[in-house]
Amino acid sequence: MDRKDGSNHKETSEIWKQNEKQTDQEKSTAFGNMLERSLNATYLSMGLTLGGELGLFDRILEQDSLTCQELAEKSQTKQCFVNEWLGLMVSSGIIDCIPDSDPERYFIADYKKSSLQGQYSWLAWAKELSGYFKTYDTVSQCFKLSGPRGVDRNQLDAFYDFYENMDKESADKWSEMKSTFAQIPGLIQNFENGIEALDVGCGGGNIFISLALQFPKSTFYGVEISEKALQVARKNAENCGVKNIKFIVADATNLPKEWTGKFKYVHTSHVHHDSSRPRKVTSEIFRVLASKGSLSIFENGTNGRHGDKSSDPNYLMGYFISTFACVPNATYDEKAEEPLGVYVSKRTIIKMMEDCGFSASVVGGEDKSIESPVHNHGSTILHYHGLKN
């Protein structure tokens, strides 16, 4: 399945759209069948999450085959629960049984293993769902006018831990990123000559670590609101032997006062749609940029209209994450601005940048090389460039 271009969803899109010439009764039946498939997929997703969290898949993948009792013993779980879980997995086609085995022996076919193993596997994404299950009741209350503003970030630890874990291994990806940074005139030359650059919301620091490796004359800074995230970033930098990068805990809405006019380049990637005060963040970035300094904002690029995404499952994951994590987190702060949401419109980003003093434009068209494609959710990533005149 190819997450990068959304092709894994094309078949589903065609199924959703093939009923255009059907009668109303046929459309109603097809719609009901689609809902049934969706609910069945939800049941399966919960089972995948459970199996991933408890290590059941890991134990099966370690063996050629094993019985329910053996799986329970190896995973230190109760056999009666494992028996029902195996039924869910076998009936959905995830796990296979050896025909006529008694007691039944279970295994995972070789062709399925790549989708269930590794940092970016579908099983890894299924495990992320556990964080959403824990906050479901709180998020549902946030919808109500009488409900809470949003959800405390601490309650969304499982969600943010998932993305931090995805950043645990850093690699030199300059060959993939060069064309992206070349979209800003003179930036690569500035890196070569030596400048100070800032990554706001750096996460595991992979992007700037790669830049620091490539441009030893420049000094790179990464800021995060979480010390936990920076522990990953510092470890990544240490593993790469990088000396010209610093990671600092800082609030993007209140960057250090001594940084005024300090940086020639500032980078953010998928930060604004998660922020409780995205306009304040942009204003702070403007303050810490030097004259003629450049800002890169990488965000999903849409026109902001739901109708243009009708029956397009490419957007399902992004809207799900935005509903259950991004917007609830962004609205929790009592000083929160209107949240942007995952699929913030191009017009909104450009206006925000201009209101904060930037000359703003979109450069380079679609970009998917700046970070792992699993963050794209099948949508287009735009590179917004802001120049401080």
UniProtKB/TrEMBL annotation:
<feature type="region of interest" description="Disordered">
    <location>
        <begin position="1"/>
        <end position="28"/>
    </location>
</feature>
<protein>
    <submittedName>
        <fullName>DgyrCDS8290</fullName>
    </submittedName>
</protein>
<dbReference type="InterPro" id="IPR053173">
    <property type="entry name" value="SAM-binding_MTase"/>
</dbReference>
<dbReference type="Pfam" id="PF13847">
    <property type="entry name" value="Methyltransf_31"/>
</dbReference>
<dbReference type="InterPro" id="IPR029063">
    <property type="entry name" value="SAM-dependent_MTases_sf"/>
</dbReference>
<feature type="compositionally biased region" description="Basic and acidic residues">
    <location>
        <begin position="1"/>
        <end position="27"/>
    </location>
</feature>
<dbReference type="InterPro" id="IPR048711">
    <property type="entry name" value="WHD_Rv2258c"/>
</dbReference>
<feature type="domain" description="Methyltransferase">
    <location>
        <begin position="193"/>
        <end position="297"/>
    </location>
</feature>
<feature type="domain" description="S-adenosylmethionine-dependent methyltransferase Rv2258c-like winged HTH">
    <location>
        <begin position="44"/>
        <end position="108"/>
    </location>
</feature>
<dbReference type="Pfam" id="PF21320">
    <property type="entry name" value="WHD_Rv2258c"/>
</dbReference>
<dbReference type="InterPro" id="IPR036390">
    <property type="entry name" value="WH_DNA-bd_sf"/>
</dbReference>
<dbReference type="InterPro" id="IPR025714">
    <property type="entry name" value="Methyltranfer_dom"/>
</dbReference>
